[in-house]
Specification:
The chain is an alpha/beta fold. Helices cover 35% and strands 19% of the residues.
Length: 279
């Protein structure tokens, strides 16, 4: 049974996770065993629990003690649940809770690239993608459109940031992912694992997204770059293929999240569906 605690003082240390720690402080790189993240909304929290993440406490509107919120609490054992009416929470925190429910959870130990990519045929590689909203949207597309895993460079945004996981609709807990090591050449790692790399870049000599050579590759990594600057020149030069999405009306490119959806559909979902049809 959860321990229900009425909030009267938002300055108590137990609520630091929600009120005073930044996303970077929650990550606690100095002591990963004490690292946390905040899941926001019943849907996202439920998907995190389904994936085996460990809850620490809840902060929520009183109305969520019943219904969907109550069902989530029944899955979490004896952990603190801090509650108040919406107007009280606004006065105490200074902001509305999105969908009225937050859950502090422990960060898991990151798996290795090899563990994440075992049996994977189509993966996404995000090079220094910084915007949490884009990260969340990319994960949602990856889950929906045939990507088996997502790999990220350490300089990019964190998929467990509150905004990223919320925008992803909790799919950051469904798609296997991890960070690429900083002490090794990640393109070399993928090559050793049998992946061909596809750089999404604005180059006139790029292949069409539907080029049959891409669909024929057994293992393919779709490489997407940071907002604005795109992929590093050296990254593009070392990829096996370069692909550009055709544009019209003078538009030169799509937002990285939108581009990911187009690429994942063409290189992931359509290939997967074609294989099913042929069977």
């Amino acid at each position: 049974m959860a321990k229900i605690i009425e909030i009267t003082d938002f300055s108590v240390p137990e609520l630091d996770l929600y009120a005073r720690l930044t996303e970077n402080q929650l990550r606690n790189r100095a002591d990963p065993t004490q690292a946390h993240f905040i899941a926001e909304s019943p849907l996202v929290i439920g998907r995190a629990l389904d994936a085996g993440y460990t809850p620490v406490s809840f902060l929520m509107e009183r109305r969520h003690l019943k219904g969907q919120g109550g069902e989530l609490l029944q899955r979490c054992g004896e952990i603190p649940v801090y509650v108040a009416e919406p107007e009280v929470l606004v006065n105490l925190t200074g902001f509305h809770l999105t969908r009225g429910m937050l859950c502090a959870m422990r960060r898991p130990q990151m798996p290795s690239v090899a563990e994440v990519c075992t049996d994977a045929r189509r993966i996404a590689v995000l090079e220094n993608v910084m915007n949490p909203t884009n990260i969340g949207a990319i994960f949602r597309s990856a889950a929906a459109l045939g990507m088996d895993a997502v790999l990220l460079t350490a300089a990019g945004s964190d998929p467990l940031y509150r905004r990223a996981s919320r925008v992803s609709m909790g799919t950051v807990f469904q798609v296997p992912w991890t960070y690429l090591p900083e002490d090794r050449d990640w393109q070399e790692i993928l090559q050793e694992m049998g992946f061909k790399t596809v750089a999404m870049a604005l180059k006139k000599d790029s292949l069409a997204l539907w080029d049959p050579r891409l669909a024929a590759e057994e293992k393919l990594a779709v490489v997407l770059g940071t907002e604005g600057d795109g992929l590093a020149v050296q990254t593009i030069a070392r990829c096996d293929y370069t692909v550009m999405i055709p544009m019209s009306n003078g538009v030169d490119s799509l937002n990285v999240a939108a581009a990911s959806a187009v690429a994942f559909y063409e290189l992931g979902m359509r290939v997967e569906c074609k294989g099913v049809t042929e069977l």
